[in-house]
Each structure stands twice: as C-alpha cells, then as structure tokens.
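Here we describe the complex-level prediction in full. Unlike the single-chain runs in Section 2.1, the three entities below were treated as one system.
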Amino acid sequence: MNAIIALAIVGPLAASGIGLLVRERHHLRDAITLMGLSATALAAIALLIDVQRNGTTVVRVGGWDPELGIVLVADQFAALILVVATLTILVVDIFAIGQRGTASTGDQTVVGPMLLVLTAGVSLAILTGDLFTLFVAFELILVSSYVLLTHQGRAAQLRSGMTYVVINLLASTLFLLGLAYVYAATRTVNIALLAERIPELDDGVRLGIGLWFLVVFGTKAAMFPLFSWLPDSYPTAPTTVTAVFAGLLTKIGVYVMIRFHTLTGMDDLGPVILVAAGLTMLVGVAGALAQNDVKRILSFHVVSQIGYMLMGLGLFSVAGVAGAVLFLVHQIPVKTVMFLVGGLIEDDQGNSSLDKVGGLAARRPIIAVLFAIPALSLAGIPPFSGFVAKLSLIDAGINAGSVAIVVVALVASMFTLLSMSKIWLGVFWREPTPPSEPASSKASKRTMNGATMAAVAGTLAVVALAGPLWNMSEEIARDLLDGQTYIDEVLGTDRGGVASP
Amino acid sequence: MSAALIAAVAALVGSGVYLITSRSLSRIVLGFSLLGHSAVLALLAAGGSAGAPPIVGSSDLPSSDPLPQAFSLTAIVISFGLTLFVLALASRQRQLTGDDLVEDDVEDRRVAQLSTKPADDREGETA
Amino acid sequence: MIDQTTGPSPIVSLGVRAATPLALVIAVFVFFAGHNRPGGGFAAGLLIGAVLVLRSIAGFPLPFRAIPLLATGTIIACTVALAPMLWGNVFLDQVVVEQTLPLLGKVKSGSALVFDIGVTLIVSGLIVAVLDGFRADHLATPPPDLANEKTNAENSS
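The structure predicted for the assembly as a whole is:
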C-alpha cells in the first residue's frame, strides 16, 4: 500500500511533466492527462478498499522518524475524500477535453498538466500527516490554480486573479507564521504529535493556535468574514477551472480544518465556529439572491454551503462531525456538477446571465434535467444527497441543543431553494433564446454532456450509498474526536514513552 | 527567543501588510517579500537559541535545531517562485491596462460590463 | 535594460562573456558540494539562472526554452522519488554508492544526486520562464491607450 500512497502524489506530478513536454500534441497530451488522472483515481479507490480492510496505512517518507521526517497517513477520512476528489477532477478533465471543440477558449495546452499538478497538491494535502507538508501542498494547489485562473490572460481574469493571488499569499504567510508559533510552543509540526501536545498547553496558547489556524484554514475555505475573494474571482475563470475550484479547493480547507481542530481538541472554539458558520450560510445565500448571473449565483452558494460543514464541526459531537464529513462528500460532486451545467448553459448561449438566457427547458431538456437534480440536492430536497447530509446535520444540532444554528440552517436552505428557482425561471423557462454562434461541434457537446452526466450519477451514488457512507462518517468522526486512535496509528503503539523535549 | 528577532518580525509584518493594502502591484510584491522574510525570521526565532551548524560531525558544540532551518529554506524557495509569478502578473497587467494598479470598484464595473457585453468569453471581440 | 538605439555596452557584454564560464564552474562545484556541505541542486540552479539573467541583460539570446527544462526536471525528480519502491524500499529513499575512481580518488555519491539534477533543471527553467515573460513584455510594448483586452492569442504562461 505504501507504493499506492506515493503514486497518488508523485504519479500526477510526473504525468504533468510528461504532459508539458508534449503539450503541443493535443491528443497525446490529453491521453497522458487522462491516464494520469485515472491512475490517481484508481489508486485512491484501491487505498479506500485497503483502509477499509486493513486499517490505516502510514508511510514514513525516506524512512525518517515522525519526530523529524514527513509522514503520509491514509486513514478512512483521507482515503474517502481522496476518492471523491480524484474522481471529480477526472470528470472535469473529460469536460475540458470536450470543451476544446468550442470557440470561446484560449490557450488550452497548460490546462491538463496544471490539473495534474493540482491533483498532486490535493492528494498531498489530504494524505499528509504534518502541518508543514500541508503548507507545501497548499502552495502546490495554489500555484497551479493561479495558472489555471489566469492562463487565458484576459484583463477581467487578471484583475480578479490578483485578488485571489493576494489573499491566498497572505493566508500562506499567516500559515507560515502560525507554523512558527506552533513549533515554538510544541517543538513539532507532526499532526499526531500535536494532537498529543497541544491539549497539554496553557489555555491561552492553545486557543491562540486554534484561532490562528481557524483564520488560515478559514480563508482557504471561504468562511465568513474571510470569503469575499471567492465570488469575485471564481466567475471570471473558465468553466472547467471554476468547477474544480468550487468543488475542491474550499473543501480542502474544510477538510484540514475538520482534521486539525478535532484532533487537537479545540472544543472550546465550538461557539466561535458556530457563529461563523451561521453567518457564512446567511451572508452567502443573501449574496446569491442579489446576483443575476448563473456563475455568480453559484459562487455565492459555494460560500453558503461551507457554513453547513462548519456547523457540523462547530458542534464537536460525533453526530455533528459525521454530518460535516458526509456533507463534504456530498458537496464536492454537487458543486462541481452545478458549475459544469453552468458551463453547458454558457456553451449553448455564449452567456450565463439570467436576463439574456431563456427557454432552455424546451430546447435543451438534457441540460434542464442535469441542472435540476443537483439543484434540488443543493437545496436539500429529499431524496437527493443534500437531504441526507443536511438531515444529519440538523439532527446533530438538535441533539446538541443548539437551536439557533438549526434555525439558521433551515432558513438558509429555504433561500437556497429560492435562488435555485430563480436560476430555473431565468434559464429554463420563458421564450427560448437563440443559441450562440458558432456552436460547438456535436462530438464536443456529447463529451461535455457525458462528463456532466457522470458527475450527476456521482451525486446520485452518494444517495444510494448513504447508509454505508453514514456509518463510515460516524466511524471517522469518532476516531477524529477521540484522537488516540490516530496518534497510535501514526506514531506506533510500541514506542517506549517518547519524552517531549 | 531573542527579543530583537521578535521586534524585527513585528516591524516586517507591519510594513508588509501596509504595502499589501496599496493599490499598486509593484508595492504589493514588495510587501510580500517583506512578509516572507518575517515568516522566515519567525521560524528561526521558533527554533530556539543558535548553535553550531546542524551538520553531523561539523562541530562538538550543541547544534541548532535543523527543522526550522529546513522549513525556512522551503519557505524561501516557495516565496521566491510566487514573487516571480506576481511580478509576471503585474507585468501582464501593465501590458493590458498601461499601469499596474488594481482597479477600483471591480463589482460595479463587472455589472456595468454585463449589460453591455454578451459574455466574458467574447470580450476580445467586443473590446 | 538594453538601450534599443545603441545596443548593450561593450564592457558589459565582454564582462558577461568572461564571467559565464567561471560562474558555471562554480555552479558545478556547488552542485557536487551539496552532497555533504552547503550547496546543492537549488543553489546550482540559482547560479545558472543568475548567469542567464546576466547574459539576458547583456543582450545575448537565451539558450534554452523554459517548458522542456521544467518538464524534464519534474520527470527526473519524480522518477528518483518513486524508484526505490521498485526494490521495496521506502518512498524517497536513497542509495549511496562509493567507488574509487582514477584521478578523483574515493568518490561517494547517491541517487540524491540525480534528484538534485532534476531540481537544478527546474530552478533554471523557472528563471528562463520569467526572463521569457519579461522579455516578451519588453519587446511587445503595446500602444499606451490600448486599455482593453487583447485577443487570447498571445498568452504569457
């Protein structure tokens, strides 16, 4: 299994190198990109199966001790999210290959290789067992996302890309400063060792570290009030890029937040996180209602949905964290698919503004169906995946006695439905508008529709597997909140009392 | 930890953040360099008291902590690459707009653009 | 930096030409020193990059394209990282070889050296990419009032 973990990280990186070498030869490059991404997805699936059977795998890179070296940890949480993330990127890449036939795209030669670098970064961020490697993984993700965001070099993209770059660079610097504080306080950056040592620190230092990383990860996750960069930068990027970003990047922030704050026992921060969660839901959905462009509306929904995951984390109960994990699994494909549908609309109409598009339900019924399923899921209508995930969160909230956050979550859900109906009315009803000229080729449309359908099927799979997924989420949540399992797995149970220096 | 190092970190962060809030991209780049240096200094300060170079067999004295130095090196490399990227963006921005200023009222301008232009993707044709 | 009317100054041009081989020798030394002493792939890459920057300022053309350097470097580094696993060792492990060669005496080296070659290539490739970007910018100065978008054709990646 060690080989598979290494492959999931280095494989896409090597493939991106090969892809860059042959980037002028389109078919070869696409084939290499697809192979790299499929191999990573397969590795992730194999990892999940193995972790289910044999428990957590830990790789000590270069054979170093966890005190000094880098460890990669594939536990259930990591393997599960890795599977969802790599499959999502694979689907988006197929969509991107289909989109190449359309008129409206710029230089596509770097998209495939950069998606591969992004995949490597995402794998590393998910699998890493120490904070510094997490920082490196974030940089890997960010560097590739900067390029993806600005590779068309248009003025609007540069302008909004600047906001994205500046905010994220600032967050990275804060991350480094936070690492310095953590290291000064505990003499380690290994998450398992931190899980042992942080709870023993003074309350002030402990909460300081917790809050500091709440800000750092919160900026990546677009938590209120650190979200304003997101709706500004996402809509201008090419569709495929936005789909990956919306589906994955903020979720990686949430993933590490869930991991770090539960393992290090930051229960005291619960109320703070809950307040931020409620405000994130409300402000995000309110922003969405005010917008008039499909991609902009969806971007605000990215923010709003982050609130639900934070709510689960903020409850710091097994049911709450399990709900957050399940929500994460549901949200990655749903958000991606919504942006892909936005791309389909834009491809058909050359535009995604509600004022200029209309009547697609009659003319392109496939797009309407592909939109309706994830939209209802996003709003949390049964029997779609959003319902299962939201129900578990609401249930956890009621059990924990936090009525306020439950009410906010329900209100935000209603507004989400309202905003989805706004898109539906604007895009799919009314008089049909003429399609854009020149239209994409048949083959290109087929590929894009196929990729979107695969992603919709993925969201439906989350419902079909809701039972096993919920059991798994509960187990993950129990392990995270307990912490001792993770510590023993990473450091080994037989270490004869390692003294902290 | 040395108080001088901490004071230097504080001064660097202060001036770095001040520069970042500026509108000109070249100042933002300078601000980031300062912030990067502050992070490296903070990492060094976190490493505790200085000692001999942490190379095995180079000295009999107690060596300094190698981990923060490894962190710093990685951080320097990364901030080097990112600084170059931001510089390239600034240069591209200058090429497109004639200056390197981040423009005002992005939101307003976008909404105004939406009413006059068919789509983002075809801005090249309408411009 | 180049004055378009007169070209680079002969002093700069001659100086850079003289300095190039010296700097490259130092780069090679630093590269090999990195095994046990300060230095290594990154520093050597920076030195090569510095040479390229100097040459570019003096008006010499860049000898390499950026993307092949970056891509080859990445592939080499990844291969070395994964290779130990073929023999059942840990990820990123290294093999150390010791041999006595004529003239050089006892030479100790390892697979980390190959990894460092990858790093050197990536670092110098990065610098070439940046020089490419700035130089393209310098030559293709747009009319000052062309404030709006250009076509997508000329992407600086």
